[in-house]
Write a structure and sequence with these properties.
CATH class of the largest domain: Mainly Alpha
Shape: elongated
Strand content: under 5%
Helix content: 55-70%
Number of domains: 2
Oligomer: single chain
CATH architecture of the largest domain: Orthogonal Bundle
Distance between the termini: 58 Å
CATH topology of the largest domain: Arc Repressor Mutant, subunit A
Structural class: mainly alpha
Radius of gyration: 19 Å
């Protein structure tokens, strides 16, 4: 059995496919084991999108609820980890659409995942000192579309592979690569515009 990041369990635990079949047959303990097995992964994904602890808890619970309700549609033999990662990503995206209405956010309002992704993409630019970079990152992620934030967090902050990003976002590997390339380019454009504005103001 392939074990994704955040998998929790014992070597002799039943495979995911066995637990899914048991859960579909009404075994609540089997689904409980799936929750325990993947809760770290789910919280890692949701925590990459949302900064508020209450929101993270709420969306994680929503993820497992959606997984339970959609279990009948789970394809037998498919890996469970990417499937529930996609649900967690979608639930986080839905919450982002509800919460993120403003055009700018402060650095403190960015989630850890957004900060990590933004720092990683800007680090090599060499165009601003630490203070200016901090000010730059106050707004760097905010103008991006939610799906662009999503792919940046999955790939650059959480370290998902191209295939895992594609599965989590429900698209092809090619589409995920294109989305990531465009998101990185969009973020760099925002950074460059902010740097240019700072230069003109100076």
């Amino acid at each position: 059995m392939i074990r994704p990041p955040g998998w929790q369990g014992k070597a002799d635990d039943p495979d995911d496919s066995v637990l899914v079949q048991r859960a579909l047959a009404g075994d609540r303990e089997a689904f409980g084991l799936l929750i325990r097995r993947y809760q770290r992964l789910v919280f890692r994904i949701v925590g990459g999108f949302l900064r508020n602890r209450a929101d993270v808890q709420d969306v994680a619970q929503e993820t497992f609820l959606r997984a339970f309700e959609g279990l009948a549609g789970f394809r037998a033999g498919a890996p469970f980890g990417p499937w529930i990662a996609r649900i967690a990503t979608r639930a986080s995206y839905d919450r982002l659409r509800q919460r993120r209405r403003t055009s700018e956010v402060a650095w403190e309002d960015l989630s850890p995942g957004e900060r990590s992704a933004a720092q990683g993409l800007v680090a090599g630019a060499g165009q601003a000192d630490r203070a200016a970079t901090r000010d730059l990152l106050d707004r760097a992620m905010a103008p991006l579309a939610p799906k662009d934030r999503m792919v940046l967090i999955l790939a650059d902050a959480l370290g998902f592979s191209g295939a895992e990003v594609a599965q989590a976002m429900g698209c092809s590997s090619l589409a995920a690569r294109i989305r990531l390339h465009r998101a990185r380019r969009a973020l760099r454009r925002v950074v460059e515009a902010l740097l240019a504005g700072m230069k003109d103001a100076g």
